[in-house]
Amino acid sequence: MKTLYFISAMMLFVACQENDRLIYNDGMHDIYYSVVTENRDSLYVSLLTAEDVSVANIQIKLLGHVLPVAQKFKVEIVKERSDAKEGVHYLPLPEYFEFPAGVFEYDMPVTLLKGDEHITEKPVTLTLRLIATPELGVAYENRSELRLLIADMLKKPEGEGYYGDMTVFKNLFGEYSKTKHLMIIDLVGHDFWDGNYGSYGGVYGLYYEMGYYTPYARKLYKIITEKEIKDENGKIMQGWMVP
Questions:
Q1: Are 198 and 207 in contact (CB under 8 A)?
Q2: Would you tell me how many other CB atoms lie within 10 Å of the CB of residue 64?
Q3: How far apart, in whole angstroms, are the C-alpha atoms of residue 99 and residue 60?
Q4: Model pLDDT for residues 148-189, shown as the tens digit of each residue
Q5: Distance (Å, rounded) from C-alpha 30 to C-alpha 47?
Q6: Distances in Å between the alpha carbon of 158 and those of 52, 167, 205, 239?
Q7: What was the pLDDT predicted at 13?
Q8: Do residues 154 and 48 make contact, with C-beta atoms less than 8 angstroms apart?
Q9: Going by C-beta distance under 8 Å and a sequence separation of 6 or more, which residues neighbour residue 25?
């Protein structure tokens, strides 16, 4: 009986400790990459329509109370998990970034460079790791690293599930082709993954950008059905059920 009471007491003690760690006081502030999940550790960045220099804004979230004043945090490049080259694919990171006061989200700017012919055929990887400072901690170890996939090429949407990018593409624009993809870019002025449009800039998938793209889908439908336009394989593109 005593053993049973002892075990119960220990379980209660551990549970209390765990709960204490989940309670944030005014002085506790930790950050993490919001885009990183159990199933995702990378972010594709398209430079297809970018100028020579482009800024990728990477969302950092704050766990705890908002900051009363801006605080510094550090980001390092994980060299063993990166093949992107400084001065070729990106500019050096600053020694520190500053998370603003009064907000829970911050778009961390990373300056990327266009011009390397290799990324017109295959992406390069820049892995960024959040580093704790006395002002800001890191909330989750498994959400402290993010791989940026940097490319200057068309990326075919992937995913056939309900929320999949290809499913959403077909719902909006019909069957996929590279020619149609380029026509969409010409209409909207950017690629699906350039991170600077709509609700989330494509970061969380096209499903969350359907409202943004629907007017363009209707415009594209009109263009394609008014005359014969062939895709890259010489096939005449057909109409589809437009939202």
A1: no
A2: 18
A3: 9
A4: 999 999 999 999 899 999 999 999 999 999 999 999 999 999
A5: 31
A6: 27, 8, 10, 22
A7: 41
A8: yes
A9: 65
- The secondary element (H helix, E strand) that includes residue 219 is helix 210-226
Sheet holding 145-151, edge to edge: 42-46, 145-151, 124-131, 71-77, 97-99
User: 200: pLDDT confidence band, cut at 50, 70 and 90?
Assistant: confident
- What are the residues facing 53 on neighbouring strands? 113
In three-state secondary structure terms, 120 is helix
Phi, psi of 38 (to 5 degrees): -60, -30
- Give tens-digit pLDDT for 118-132: 999 999 999 999 999
Whole-number CA gyration radius for the chain: 23
- Alpha-carbon gap, residue 112 to 87, rounded angstroms: 9
Q: What six digits make up the tokens of 164?
A: 């999949």
The angle formed by the CA atoms of residues 202, 205 and 209, to the nearest 5 degrees, is: 60
DSSP state of 104: S
What is the total residue count of the chain?
A: 243
d(C-alpha 13, C-alpha 180), whole Å? 61
Q: How many angstroms separate the most distant Cα atoms in the chain? A: 85
Q: Is 89 exposed, middle or buried (0-12, 13-18, 19+ CB in 10 A)?
A: buried
Q: What is the pLDDT of residue 64?
A: 86
Terminal CA-CA length for the chain: 67
Report whether 147 contacts 126 (CB < 8 A).
yes
Question: How many H-runs (helices) and E-runs (strands) does the chain carry?
Answer: 4, 9
